[in-house]
Amino acid sequence: VTGVSIRREVTETSPPELRRDPVAGGWVLLAEERMLRPRAPDPPPPPSDAATCPFCPGRETRTPPEVLAYHDPPGSSCWSLRVVPNLYPALRAEGAAEPRIEGLYERRDGIGAHEVIIESPRHEQDLGDLPGPRIARVLAAVRERMLDLRRDPRIEYVLWFKNRGAAAGATLDHGHSQLIAIPIVPGSVREELERCREHFRSGNRCLFCEMIDQEQSDGRRLVAASGRHLAFAPFASRFPYETWILPRGHAPSFEAGSDDDLEDLAGLLGGVLLRLGRSLGRPAYNLVLHTTPCREPGLDYYHWHLEILPRRTPLAGFEWGSGFHINPTRPEDAARHLREDGP
Ligand SMILES: [Zn+2]
Ligand SMILES: [Zn+2]
Ligand SMILES: [Zn+2]
């Protein structure tokens, strides 16, 4: 099991805990130690502060010891990518997997792991600034860590996500993404799984495979394509310039992809981030990977995908109250702009 470093000496706090909302059904992660992390600056983001950045080369001791590193050239002391446990983890390794019921309420220990992928030694380089082979290395690190984290039988899901820019929740400028291994399947993934299973059971193919066919023949929302992957603006985009990337052939689990798959994906992902940068001017964004739950591989009806969500406006009361989003940009217009802003 991957160690999760906790600075117990700072202050005495309760261990992280998951609680289920008995009305809405969703889970809340209570993680007091997260309160100790650096305060997120108000937008616009501050100038890069490489002078104090804990992710820059030479300050490796300011993060917990790495769980994975790639060196460039191989065997040299210069790293090109590091994966370290989060210094302010939302979850920890110790605890039981069993739920505890108290009348109406269900709680679980906040067990799992929380890791940071430092994508480049260069402070100012974001994922989209890296050349294709370096993006492929980041994706390979994601695959390697996912395969390792899911070996813990208590872990039900491993989520890879990226927050870029203060408006997307990033607290550090240095290019990085995160992995969270949790003992439950997140509600948003569970909802997707259930909808896809329903579609499949009523005599259809995989919902995503059908969506790919429809988007390709329609063409209005296509952004870019590579040999094995497709990028398009989803029909009901929640955010302006929201873009999804999927494998063209049916593939339930990202982590089952080959090196060739990752290389192809890296080229397309880099191109999409470049287009978003040109259209929106280095936007803040969230990126999330939706893949199958650890204990449900090889599904006929689920198809892994990346969701890229540019963040220009914060979520407000209407979104919180209604559960649906107001998007001022038609996905067809966003896709056209992104096609025009290509390499
Ligand atoms: Zn840095
Ligand atoms: Zn499919
Ligand atoms: Zn999804």
Description:
The structure is a single chain. The protein is of the alpha+beta class and 343 residues long. It is built from six helices and 14 strands. A hairpin with a 6-residue loop joins strand 1 (17-20) and strand 2. The longest helix is centred in the C-terminal third of the chain and has 22 residues, at 259-280. The chain is globular. The protein starts with 16 loop residues before the first strand and ends with a helix. Bound molecules: zinc ion (ZN) (3 copies). The site of one zinc ion has 4 residues, from strand 14.
**How many strands in all?**
14
What proportion of the residues is helical, as a percent range?
A: 10-25%
**Attached small molecules:** zinc ion
Order of helices and strands: EEEEEEEHEEHHEEEHEEHH
What would the average pLDDT be, to the nearest integer? 90
Computed Rg: 20 Å
Report the principal-axis shape: globular
